[in-house]
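Subject: Nephrin

B.,
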Amino acid sequence: MTHEEDDETYKDNSEHNLKIEVEADVQEESYQTDEEEASHSTRRGPGRPKRDGRRVPPQGVQINDESGFSIKNGVTKAYADGAGLSLTCVTAGGKPQAQVSWWRDGELVTDETQFYPERGKSQAVLKIAKLTRSHLLAVYSCEVSNSRLQPPLVVRVAVDMFLRPLEVKLQGENAPLSAGRRYDIICKCKGSRPPAIIAWMKDGLPLEGGTMTVSPDGNTTTSTLSFTPTSSDHGLTLSCRASNQMVPHSEMRDTWMLRVLYPPKVTLTLGHGLNANDIKEGADVYFECHLVANPWVLRVWWLRDGHRLLSNSTAGIIVSNQTLVLQGVNRASSGRYFCEAGNSEGTTRSAPFQLRVKFEPVCGESGGRKVLGAAKGEPLRIECKVDAEPAASLFRWIFNSTPGVSRELNEFTAEPGSSVLTYTPSIAAHYGTLQCWGRNELGSQQTPCVYHIVPAGRPDPPNGCVVFNVTHHSVVVNCKKGFDGGLRQKFVLVITAAENLTANLSSTVPEFQITNLDATTDYTALAYSVNAKGWSKASNTIFMKTLPSPGLKELRRSTGPSTEEKVDGPWLYILLAAGSTLIVAGAIGVIIFAVKRFKIDSPVRERRSRSPKRDELPLNPTVSAFTDTINDDKNPDLIPPPDYESLHSDPTTAAPYTISARPSTKRNCATQMPVKPYHVTWAPMLQSRNCSTQTPPPHKESSV
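Prediction pasted inline below.
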């Protein structure tokens, strides 16, 4: 309520106010103490009226804000941080008029009292020019008193406030981000009351997707943005903005400069001044590779049809980082070209550039010379395919059977790149040569495609058959094909063993792999060619022989698991190792013993034989050749020449050495000295000779 309204109310109710004062005077007597009454009585003389010194306490206290509204519930309305505050504490009645003062935390703020006697009111105004955070919920007390003997009337009020944010901070470091990868970016705001509203901005434009949470005490607001940067975000700003809508100009923000890493962006273009639709053979062509990357590229590669190109001045290819030069292009230079670049973020390949080098038609299909067989009256469909850029659209056919005599054919169909002629020979003169030319915008084909039309017949047999990759159960036969009789042919191989048919194989190529044969068996085979006209004659007979089967161990391995009980664990290997060691040690001991006896007891010293010449060495390098200089059958210490037949017959059964016992009555042929009863000979190589004939007698030895 304003002061003007109070004045109106006072004027209209003056009689009522007077009545209140009379009632207040009457009631004052109840507030005087006995001491005061006694004091007044003593000061009054006899017959003097009572002194009008009675006091009346104030009737009530009310606190109004600057708008005149009464404060209720002891809390002011919420004031913005930085705003001004004005509170008025008003008291009515009381005699004398009461003093009004403002206090905070036991300290006097102001006691300037404004008196309005005509209204019977007094008041004090609390003014704060600028509220700060320290005033939040600060309690101010209004005390009203008109007597020191009575306790003052006290009314308390708390100041409510809206607070601006104190701090806004993007969490973490502003590290580089990879394009296409999702990141959770966190922004925290502290000190706002009520909790701040956090908004995200990218280069000044709002971003959606932030999720806000508030701490239990309401002091901290956290917003999390799920952000996926792109290459176009590099160099832009990302801002976190916090504001309290109840406090004007309370906005605060924190900003990052985005650093986005991304793979190269690659664009391939044809060199300036070149027309992609008018590149002919012999022209020079160059490409440019345009790159945008962060970080910068490590290397640039050039590719044609998926294969990397390297600099080759001989072939006219020059690679210079972001430029590719093709000198003197030809039809082989046509293809799909790519530029590829890579950095730490990845490798990117450009869109393909289709280079089409224009050239005159040339015959496809390996030169275009074919031999085609056809029977009389049999239609023959001949397709002439030519390579050209652009594709040939015009064709020409000519037939000639006699040199210098030709006629042009018109019964054919044509489409870009090929032409089809249906030709039917009827008489002998219709067999000859067909020629086909194509034409495009650059010109006509220089060398025609040639098709020789011959009478169809049975094919020639395969020839030059060879056998290789022979094993104990399979062989491979490879032949050369003969003339196909003018028709498509296939090949047949017939295998027999002892006049029994073993296999009959067919193939589109003259190469056969024959399996499931028996080991160490002779086979014969005949090869044939077959076309629509019939079978060819048989080829020359092919002879084959499989290898011997593998050893017993291999056979056992192939027959499957053995039913015998096997010894598990390491004991089998220990026993085998111990047995092998004993056998080797015993053999070495016997050899040393025999050699010592040989050196001591032999009365004749061995004559040193000359080394054989190179051309005298045997064909088998694993068998040593020996020459006997003394042909004496009586001398047991002589080493006769080896028996090669026995060596080659069964090398696996020959013992490494043999200790032979001979009668002591034998004598050396040269010295006639008795021979020791025991000597050591090499079983597969040593023989004794007859002293008179120098021929080796039958070999009779008893092995120990």
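Residues 587-681 form one domain.

T.
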